[in-house]
Amino acid sequence: MRSSRSGIILRLVPVALFCALPAEAGSIRFDLRFAGYDLSVSDYAGGEFPACPGGLTWFDEGMPNLPVVTSTFVIPQGMSVTDAEVEIIAEETLEGFHDILPVRVVPFGEEPGPFLRDPAIYISDARFPDSPVVGTGTGTRTGFQLGSVSVSPFSYNPLSGRLSVITEATITLMYSSDPSVERLSLTAGQIGHAESMLGHIVANPGDLAACRPGERETDDSWPVWVAIGPASMEATLQPLVDHRNSTGLQAAYVPLDSIYATYTGYDTQEQIRNYLKYAYQNQGLVYALIIGDWGPTQRISSLVVGSDSLMLAQTADLYFSDLTRMWDGDGDHLYGENTDWLDYYADITVGRFSSDVQAHVATMVAKAISYETESAEGSWRTTALLCGAGLWPDTEPDGYWGSFVCDSISNRIPSSWVQLKRYEYWSGHPTDQIDMINQGASYVSDQGHGGSGGVYWYYEPAYMFTNQNYTGMTNSDRLAIFHSMACDPGILSANGCSAERLMMWPDGGAVAVMYNSNYGWGTPPDMGPSEWLEVHFADQLFVNGIERIGDMQAAAKDAFKAAGGMTLQNWVLQENNYLGDPAEVFISNQTGIAGEEGTSGAFAALGPAFPNPAAGAFSVSWTLPGSSSGAVLGVYDLAGREVWACDLPAGQGGSGLITVPGTGASGAPLPSGCYLIRMDSSSGCASSMVVLLDN
Fold it and tell me: For the whole model, what pTM was predicted?
C-alpha cells in the first residue's frame, strides 16, 4: 500500500520580523503546532515510516526515515544564521513498538535493494535525532538574504521501538552580522523580479520590502537579457535579440571572444561566469541565454554521492545562475562538490541553446519567436499531458509508479485546464502520446525511465518520447514544454540527446525542455528528490502563476532548496537543466506580447501582501511599465478558481497600492487558506501569495 499523507496538520506561525538596520544580531521566533492526533504512520514492507505535511526525506541512506520540516525566512542584509533553538511545549509518545524503516535511495534505472539499517543507529537506543533541530542554513537570492531551520518533529529510540512526536514547540532562529556577506546594490527591476518569486517561498513575505538589497539607478543601455555565444552565431541570434527588445527587455548579443578578452578565470567557463557576475552586480542583468554544445561553455559538476563516485558527465548550468559563492571553495578545480561552498539559489535566470550548428540554432531561434507571435489559438494552451511509467512495478505490495508524482502535479492544475493522463500499470500503457502532442498540449510531464535517447515506459513498446519517435511530432504551431525526472535524457555530452532533439526538431517538439543530465533519484516508498522538483515546477506554473518558463524553473529550484536539505537534493538541483530562452513567456500567460513597446529593463511586479497572514482585508502594491494597459488584479484559490477581481487604474503604467477586501464576489469572507494574487496586463503578469485567517 502506498503511504497516506493525511493526518497531522502542521501550522507554522512566524512572529513578526523587524529589519531595523544596521543591526548586529536578531532572531525569528515561530510556533510549530500539530492539530489533531491522527498521525500518519504507514505500514510498508514489514516496517513503518511516519509522515507529516511539509516533511521530506532528509536523512542519509540507512538512517531512520523520519520526516523533516524546513522553514525559510528572509533576514536582514549582511546577516547569516548562527543557531536555532527549540522550546518543546508538548510532546507525545505513540503507543506500541515501532520499527521505522531506514532511508533507501534508488536511481530510477535500478531496482530497489533491501532496506539497509545503519548499525551505529539501529543497535542503539539513543534518541534519533539527538536534537529536533537537524540543520540551519543561509543563502542569497538576488541580493536577498535567506535563513532556514530544519526540524524533525519525530524522534525514535530504535531498540525500545519508541516513537515520539512534538505536538507544540516554539522555535527561535538566530542570525548575526557576517562580514563575509556581500551587500549588493541592484536595480529596481532585479529586486522586483526576485521579490515576486520569493513571496511564494519565504515564510515571512511581509518582511521582503524591509530586507531588500540596496537600489542602484538604471542605465537604459544595460541589457537585462543577453545571449552569449561565438561571434559566428551573432547574425543567427539577432532576430531573437530584436524580438526581446520589442517586448520591453533590453537585449544584446555578447560574443564569447569579447568575454575571454576582458574577464579572467581558470578556464572559459569561469570567464563566462565572471562576466555574468559582473553584469548581474553592476548592470542589472536578469536573463542569460548560453549558446553552445559540449565544450567550453559547459560546466561539468564533480559532485560525488556516497561511495559510488558518480562523476559522470553531469552538466550543471546552475553554475551560471548561482553567482553568490565560489563553486570551487577548496580550490581543486573540481566544481560543484560538497566542499565547494555552493549557495544553490539562483541570482539570474539561465537557459541554453545546446548546439554549435548554425542550422540547429536557427531552428531554436525561430521556434522561440514563433511561440510568442504565431502560436495557434485553442484549448491546447491550457492542456496538460501527464505520462507516468512503471518505475518499480515489482516492489511489494503494489508497485511504485510514475503516476504517483503525476497525480501530485494533477492536484495543482486548475480545474479550467484539460488533463490528459497516460499511465502505465502491469497491464501495459497507452501508445498515443505522440498523437496527443500533435493535437496540442502546452505542458508535458513525462515521468519514466530514461537514457540519453529519451524517456521510456517500463513495458514494451518502451518508447515514450525518444529519439525513435520524436520525428512524428508535427506540433510546430503548438509547441510544448517538457519537464521530466528520468535519468539521462538531458545528458548533453551525448551526441544528440533527447532534450536537444526535441529543441532542434523544426516540425514541432519543444520550445523548452527541462531534463536531467544524469541519474534521477527516488526514495521509495516516499517521493524522492527528483519527484519533488517536478512538483515544485508545477507549483510555479499552476499555483503561483510565474509568467516566464525559465523563471518557473529557477523558482522551482529555489523553492525546493528552501523546503529543506533533502537527501540527494543538491545532485538534482545541479543536474536538471533548462534548454530554451530563459525569458520565454508561457503560452497561457501571453497577453499582447508581439509588437509591444516596453520600458527598457522594466517588469510588471506585485509587492508582498500586507499584512500577511491577514484576517480580512490586506493591501498589495503594483508596478507596471509605461505602455501597460488593461491591467486586472485577481485573487485565486489553490484550485485555480478566481474568487475576486478588479481593474487597476493603470492606463499608462505606473505604480500604486490597492486594498483587497478578503471577500469573495458575493461579499462573504473568504475561507482561511493560501491564495494566489495575480496581475494580468498587456506587459505581462506578476503574482504574489497571501495567507487568509478566519475573521
Answer: 0.86
